[in-house]
């Protein structure tokens, strides 16, 4: 892959969500908007190697996409006007002919549904990106399709990356995304932010999507980069917008708190060469204390709203409370693992999943010892959703090292490395496997492998 091709792909990652969102608002068809945006991407791949990368590549893509959208709209309006005139002629008195329905379904209704070219303007009305999230999370779609489509359109993830987030095959995710776009088009779902009462019904799916986008930015599942901050920052911005729209919803504030507290560690999560620095080894003086304060304040709002309304803590507020335990600890040694383990017990009840169990095992390992943590892992060892997940082996391998079962730990860590989605994670796990295979080496300390 050439440097220009890498640049095009990087720009596409950053710009495609906003580009698709703006096009979807004007074209009123999510699938069509993505196609037009991808045409601009192809044009960049064709032109930039010869002409050079423009000074403002995002603006270049936007301009090309809008021109293509204008051309498309003009063609559609011309075609529909012809069908309208034909239908009017067929229905004229004395024609002896009954009007015929056209697949474009004709006539005046279609002309009214297609935006005028002048409607494709530079300054979007409202928050297009939020509107795109809400459309992708529309109730006409199954839950799995909502999340997959939003990660694809808003997160800029490939189908393979979405599949890893779901722990399902890529073909399954591809089918979900295709069906979702067809469903939205057939249902004529508008690309707009709904009223607050309707928005409240869609909050759980939207929060899930926003957090999955943040998670992909916080711990990237592909490429050389350990983090993709632009994705995380988009998710955080969407979270803040949702909090403004639904100020009385505790879980919205819980998610805002969780993302802020986790994002506060960004500067400390990578070393000088871009290598991963796990939580235990992070320089906490590099944590963003402003984000920590914002996160703790949002958590306080979530707790106060929950108390006021008599609602138990939801999954995002519980995870934010766990992150707050880390944020409040002056050092790794000061971490209150008993409190964290108790919070994970509650989270496993509210939102059971194998990944929650992996993280609970880490907490139990530090609170009650590695034997107790292995018992937690044994409870999910046969879960098929973990068959392609490297973190299970990472956690188990670390626990086995702590128990002195070095050869077994090395084998487990090697298998985990083979499943890791990024080169950096593969290298990290193989280094730990090599250290475990030779107990005479300076073995790494216990690692919170499922929390980074």
From TrEMBL:
Residues 430-452 are annotated as: Disordered. Residues 17-77 form the RNA polymerase sigma-70 region domain. One of its GO terms (biological process) is response to stress. Gene3D superfamilies: 1.10.1740.10, Winged helix-like DNA-binding domain superfamily/Winged helix DNA-binding domain (1.10.10.10). It comes from the Bacteria. Residues 134-184 form the RNA polymerase sigma factor 70 region 4 type domain. Residues 202-302 form the DUF6596 domain. Pfam families: DUF6596, Sigma70_r2, Sigma70_r4_2. The keyword Transcription regulation applies. InterPro entries: DUF6596, RNA_pol_sigma70_ECF_CS, RNA_pol_sigma70_r2, RNA_pol_sigma70_r4_t2, RNA_pol_sigma_r2, RNA_pol_sigma_r3/r4-like, WH-like_DNA-bd_sf. GO terms for molecular function: DNA binding; sigma factor activity. Keywords: DNA-binding, Sigma factor, Transcription, Transcription regulation. Belongs to the sigma-70 factor family. ECF subfamily. This is RNA polymerase sigma factor. The lineage of its organism: Bacteria, Bacillati, Actinomycetota, Actinomycetes, Micrococcales.
């Amino acid at each position: 892959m050439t440097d220009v091709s890498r640049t095009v792909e990087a720009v596409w990652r950053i710009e495609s969500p906003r580009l698709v969102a703006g096009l979807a608002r004007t074209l009123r068809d999510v699938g069509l908007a993505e196609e037009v945006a991808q045409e601009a991407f192809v044009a960049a791949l064709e032109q930039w190697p010869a002409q050079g990368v423009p000074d403002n590549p995002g603006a270049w893509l936007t301009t090309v996409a809008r021109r293509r959208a204008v051309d498309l709209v003009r063609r559609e309006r011309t075609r529909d006007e012809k069908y309208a005139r034909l239908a009017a002629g067929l229905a004229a008195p004395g024609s002896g002919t009954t009007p015929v329905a056209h697949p474009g379904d004709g006539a005046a209704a279609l002309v009214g549904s297609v935006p005028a070219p002048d409607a494709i303007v530079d300054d979007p009305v409202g928050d297009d990106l939020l509107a795109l999230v809400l459309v992708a999370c529309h109730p006409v779609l199954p839950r799995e399709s909502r999340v997959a489509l939003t990660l694809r359109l808003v997160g800029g993830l490939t189908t393979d990356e979405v599949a890893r987030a779901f722990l399902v095959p890529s073909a399954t995710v591809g089918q979900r995304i295709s069906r979702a776009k067809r469903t939205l088009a057939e249902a004529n779902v508008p690309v707009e932010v709904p009223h607050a009462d309707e928005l409240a019904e869609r909050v759980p799916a939207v929060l899930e999507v926003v957090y999955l986008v943040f998670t992909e930015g916080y711990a990237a599942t592909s490429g050389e980069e350990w983090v993709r901050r632009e994705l995380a920052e988009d998710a955080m911005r969407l979270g803040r917008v949702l909090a403004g729209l639904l100020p009385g919803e505790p879980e919205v504030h819980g998610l805002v708190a969780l993302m802020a507290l986790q994002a506060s560690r960004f500067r400390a999560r990578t070393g000088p060469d871009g290598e991963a620095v796990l939580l235990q080894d992070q320089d906490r003086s590099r944590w963003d204390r402003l984000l920590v304060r914002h996160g703790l304040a949002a958590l306080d709002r979530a707790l106060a709203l929950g108390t006021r309304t008599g609602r138990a803590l939801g999954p995002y507020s519980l995870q934010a409370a766990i992150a707050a335990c880390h944020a409040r600890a002056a050092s790794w040694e000061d971490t209150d693992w008993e409190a964290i383990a108790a919070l994970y017990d509650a989270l496993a009840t509210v939102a059971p999943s194998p990944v929650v169990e992996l993280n609970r095992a880490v907490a139990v390992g530090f609170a009650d010892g590695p034997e107790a943590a292995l018992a937690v892992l044994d409870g999910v060892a046969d879960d098929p959703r973990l068959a392609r997940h490297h973190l299970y082996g990472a956690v188990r391998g670390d626990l086995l090292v702590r128990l002195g079962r070095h050869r077994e730990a090395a084998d487990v860590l090697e298998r985990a490395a083979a499943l890791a989605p990024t080169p950096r994670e593969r290298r990290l796990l193989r280094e730990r496997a090599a250290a475990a295979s030779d107990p005479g080496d300076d073995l790494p300390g216990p690692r919170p492998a499922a929390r980074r």
